[in-house]
């Protein structure tokens, strides 16, 4: 069903896996498939550049609506530590979008029997996170950090327990594929996470893909061409395995044909 039939098409998902959540990603890409790169400075924002710098375009507004819809469908929204450093005010919820859509998405979540706000999951092997960031201090927002043994010690020393942040250890020195799988099995078993929406970054998506647990990818393709030679450490959607999957949906908005929305199924259920 659609939370708001006038603005959002319905999204159907397969049932979650018996031992772990169904995991889907949401990314924005240039027309030549570039998703991100190493920032040259604070003002070098790949998302803004790929979106063309105009966040008022109908296509970009539709992309933001889709992002909030995907969050509303999830029991947990996850990001990597670098994404949180690049966007320190990040909070993966659906309620920060206006024009009544946030309220419609909240009613939709309630009708699905989900908690008011999705759990927030942060992947950080080192544990070097700013625990004063809004994601860790916003009331009623539950946060889980997936980390290593050293990362867990550092987080506890910095006051994670006092902030009621849950720490899941997924490896001794680094988070490998087995640790990622095990941590998502714990998310399902201990926190009732059936559907997880991962919003990046690149290393996180590559790690989930390498572990075989990235099930599908929603890709918003803009009409902006990014010249790879102008940036360092460029990453494209091919590194996440999107185009190696099966294209199950594609569409555009009537108001802005420059944005193309694609849905790739990586794992079949």
Question: How is the secondary structure organized here?
Answer:
Layout: E1 22-29, E2 34-38, H1 46-50, H2 58-72, E3 76-80, H3 81-86, H4 101-111, E4 119-123, H5 134-137, E5 143-147, H6 149-157, E6 166-169, H7 177-191, E7 195-198, H8 202-210, E8 216-221, E9 232-236, E10 246-253, E11 256-265
Parallel strand pairs: 1-7, 1-8, 3-4, 3-7, 4-5, 5-6
Antiparallel strand pairs: 2-9, 8-11, 10-11
Task: Report a brief summary of the structure.
The chain is of the alpha/beta class.
Describe this structure in words.
The chain has about 270 residues and is an alpha/beta fold. It has a single domain (about 20-35, about 45-265), classed as Dihydrofolate Reductase, subunit A. Helix content is about 30%, strand content about 25%. It has 8 helices and 11 strands. The chain has helices at about 45-50, 60-70, 80-85, 100-110, 135, 150-155, 175-190, 200-210, and strands at about 20-30, 35-40, 75-80, 120-125, 145, 165-170, 195-200, 215-220, 230-235, 245-255, 255-265. A hairpin with a 2-residue loop joins β10 (about 245-255) and β11. The chain is globular, with a radius of gyration of 18 Å. The mean pLDDT is about 95.
